[in-house]
């Protein structure tokens, strides 16, 4: 196969607003190193991580909710998920689905010609469980908002599915994040899981994956989205903002407590989420779109014997499990919008409005 020397790509030039994202038609095509594969990108999911990194929201100097715009004060020492600077310019985009078109000298040559999904956690494969040695695809290395990308051959898996590449690109980031949260909270049959932000990529993934584990699901989202979310079969749908959450749970479930809270929202509702946890309950978090700074009553935490887990870097088997769930037909893709690479700015503006259900997917 004859490959072009250049490609189209959306390139992050610095931290800030959308003007930091440049659409280029002449960006150098990457070459795979010895352990890497070269993927011709067919689709790449859009995620909050992209927006938060671009805007610098991860910086400790930022205390407001995620807005998608640039922030006036961003500490250049900690603008990313890992609390450290990244090299710029950078091609973002983690959820790549595409065809392997070339491999490095040490990579698995049998992958050539196969459609693959990417595992987004870049690991030291001599020490793969060491979270301090991880990076993120599209953050610490160029990702998939381009026609071609490279990644270690151990970070891809061929997938046998009737789903389109656009549908498959909705899974990797959102669903591994959700599965990681549920794993850390030890969710199982008999649990009742309260999910905030249920209409987003991670939230809708949490619904499906918690149901897969046999749990009862209480999903919170804007009421305008309830009809579509009902297709995922949560046991109860509640509004995003509830004046008396315990009373609403009592009315809809017969109990005013849940065993698990899976939260990606944070903000002002944080205290009420801990209040409705049963004694010995578990709170797991992987996001704070409504704001990272919360009121936290330590008495609620320790007097109720609550276990709290943060969830970011997942274990390697989580991605492998996800591909198995997809191939078994256990999961449903929710494609909210397909965004051509050339229309990336407009797509990210629509994504930030949060009026959608499921995932946005960028196509070259």
TrEMBL record:
Listed SUPFAM superfamilies:
GroES-like (SSF50129), NAD(P)-binding Rossmann-fold domains (SSF51735)
Identify the Gene3D superfamilies for this entry. Medium-chain alcohol dehydrogenases, catalytic domain, NAD(P)-binding Rossmann-like Domain
Residue ranges of the Enoyl reductase (ER) domain? Answer: 16-362
Q: Report the Pfam families cross-referenced here.
A: ADH_N, ADH_zinc_N
Report which residue ranges the record marks as coiled coil. Answer: none
Q: In the UniProt record, does the keyword Oxidoreductase occur?
A: yes
Keywords linked to the UniProt accession = NADP, Oxidoreductase
Q: Which SMART domains match?
A: PKS_ER
Domain of life here? Bacteria
Which terms does the record give in the GO molecular function aspect?
Answer: NADPH binding; oxidoreductase activity, acting on NAD(P)H; zinc ion binding
What is the protein name stated in its UniProt record?
Answer: NADPH:quinone reductase
């Amino acid at each position: 196969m004859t490959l072009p020397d250049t490609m189209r790509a959306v390139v992050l030039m610095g931290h800030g607003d959308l003007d930091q994202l440049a659409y280029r038609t002449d960006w150098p095509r990457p070459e795979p190193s010895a352990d890497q594969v070269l993927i011709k990108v067919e689709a790449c999911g859009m995620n909050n991580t992209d927006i938060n990194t671009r805007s610098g929201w991860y910086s400790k100097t930022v205390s407001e909710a995620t807005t998608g715009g640039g922030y006036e004060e961003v500490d250049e020492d900690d603008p990313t998920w890992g609390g450290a600077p990244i090299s710029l310019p950078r091609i973002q985009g983690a959820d790549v689905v595409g065809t392997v078109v070339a491999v490095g000298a040490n990579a698995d040559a049998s992958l050539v010609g196969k459609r693959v999904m990417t595992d987004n956690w870049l690991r030291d494969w001599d020490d793969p469980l060491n979270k301090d040695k991880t990076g993120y695809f599209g953050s610490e290395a160029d990702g998939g908002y381009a026609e071609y990308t490279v990644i270690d051959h151990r970070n891809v898996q061929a997938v046998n599915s009737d789903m389109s590449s656009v549908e498959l690109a909705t899974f990797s980031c959102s669903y591994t994040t959700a599965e990681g949260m549920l794993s850390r909270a030890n969710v199982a049959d008999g649990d009742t899981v309260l999910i905030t932000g249920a209409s987003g990529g991670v939230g809708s993934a949490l619904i499906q994956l918690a149901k897969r584990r046999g749990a009862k699901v209480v999903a919170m989202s804007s009421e305008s989205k309830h009809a579509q979310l009902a297709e995922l079969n949560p046991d109860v749908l509640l509004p995003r903002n509830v004046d008396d959450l315990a009373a609403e749970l009592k009315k809809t479930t017969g109990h005013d407590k849940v065993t698990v809270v899976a939260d990606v929202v944070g903000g002002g509702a944080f205290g009420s989420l801990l209040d409705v946890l049963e004694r010995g309950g578990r709170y797991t978090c992987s996001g704070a779109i409504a704001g990272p700074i919360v009121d936290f009553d330590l008495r609620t935490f320790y007097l109720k014997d609550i276990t709290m887990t943060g969830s970011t870097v997942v274990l390697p088997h989580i991605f492998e499990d996800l591909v198995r769930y997809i191939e078994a037909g256990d999961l449903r893709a929710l494609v909210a919008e397909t965004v051509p690479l050339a229309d990336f700015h407009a797509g990210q503006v629509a994504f930030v409005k949060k009026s959608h259900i499921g995932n946005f997917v960028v196509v070259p």
